[in-house]
Amino acid sequence: MKKIKVMTIFGTRPEAIKMAPLVKELEKREQFESIVCVTAQHREMLDQVLELFKIKPDYDLNIMQQRQSLSGITTRVLEGLEEIFKKSQPDIVLVHGDTTTTFAGSLAAFYNQIKVGHVEAGLRSFNKYFPFPEEMNRKLTGAISDLHFAPTKTAKENLLREGVKQEDIFVTGNTVIDAMNTTVEKSYRFETEELNEINYKNKKVIMVTAHRRENWGEPLENICTALRRIAEDFEEVEIIYLVHLNPAVKEVAYKVLGDVPRVHLLPPLDTKETHNLMNKSYMVVTDSGGLQEEAPHLGKPVLVLRDVTERPEAVSAGTAKIIGTDKENVYQNIKNLLTDKEAYNKMANAINPYGDGKASERIADSILYYFGIYKKRPDEFNSF
To answer: Which residues form the signal peptide (predicted)?
Structure first.
């Protein structure tokens, strides 16, 4: 039997975390020839994930540049993939989520008349500038895609409203849950020694990430000001802010929080460190999309530093709350979870709506069904 050539394309750490278990699943199955292409839109952070999951790319575009623009990323991916497609001739290309690599990869495949499968399809904030450029990246990728691997029923309903055929949508759960089942360890010791010195049992550790483009400038200053006030008002709190390497984020974080006791400003951690820090934390405060999915799996309340989210399932389930970037609002919502045990427990014990650790299996089965190898359509993940 001729093997199905499946090329996975990704370029950032979040994509890599979520595509890694799928790559490993494809490698296990004799029906597939798995081809991995990375763009290295993020170089160092991507390499950490590749090393963790022992993935050796077949192709590496290595496009990252200092202070790179969106148009620059897009054009370098388009041009780089042109030659790779000619050499490898995949039957289908899989892209993930909402990055510029995702959009450019799907567009390059379309230009070469190659089928596209969109992993984590159907997420919508319904505002094209929030998050920017992610909302349009995923909508444009969806318009190009042939197969749509929606993580939840809500995502499927979004796609149906946009005219995607029901038979082209597969509800799979989110592959990040697959990844976390291999990365979180009960007695984990951090490679970052500063994290081993924190008393997680007796301190309330707040894990923070804040880096999205729409939060650059005044919103980020507001967030950092609120965090400073929390650290000053609550001695039992330790704040661990994983500061993105982008100067637009780093400069503000260090200006506002650099001299505050019990605030730890650390560079982004590798995937295993991040997941285990989340597991030991009291709560997560973030503008990240991925953490909104990961934290519920570990029973951690999530306060979302955005005005809208494309992941409403966690909000509906009660494990996440959108709090925006107004400094007083950020402060009061963090304070509430620190002081109101009932409010905390309500969020911490909410149901995780994002997966059961079998999303990669469902995606692989769905591809085999699409290409006629499996005759029975795979069962869907039963999200609410």
So the answer is: none
Look at residues 37, 12, 9, 34 and name the one whose alpha carbon lies nearest to residue 23. 34
The answer for residues whose C-beta is within 8 angstroms of residue 252's C-beta and 6 or more apart is 217, 220, 221, 224
Tell me what pLDDT residue 39 has.
Answer: 95
CATH of the domain at 126: 3.40.50.2000
User: What domain range is 127 assigned to?
Assistant: 4-174+355-371
CB neighbours of residue 335 within 10 Å:
15
Whether residue 269 is contained in a domain is answered as yes
Catalytically annotated residues: 98, 120, 134, 211, 213, 244
Q: Could you report the per-residue pLDDT of 119-133, keeping only the tens digit for each? A: 999 999 999 998 899
pLDDT at 384 over 60: no
Asked if residue 116 and residue 228 are part of one domain, the reply reads: no
Q: How far is CA 232 from CA 199, 263, 284, in A?
A: 18, 10, 18
Q: For residues 170 and 206, state if they share a domain.
A: no
pLDDT of 125-168, one tens digit each? 999 998 899 999 999 999 999 999 999 999 999 999 999 999 99
Number of domains in the chain: 2
CA angle 275, 50, 368 (to 5 degrees): 95
pLDDT band per the 50, 70, 90 thresholds, residue 232? very high
Average model confidence (pLDDT) for the chain? 95
Q: What is the mean pLDDT of residues 5-21?
A: 95
Q: List the 302-304 sheet strands across, edge first.
A: 263-266, 237-242, 204-209, 283-286, 302-304, 320-322
Q: Does residue 101 share a domain with residue 30?
A: yes
Q: Identify the weakest region by mean pLDDT among 23-27, 107-111, 210-214, 228-232.
A: 210-214
Same domain, 146 and 287: no
- Residue 183 counted as domain residue: no
Residues 221 and 334 occupy one common structural domain: yes
Tokens 């999530």 label which residue? 302
Specify if 382 maps to a domain. Answer: no
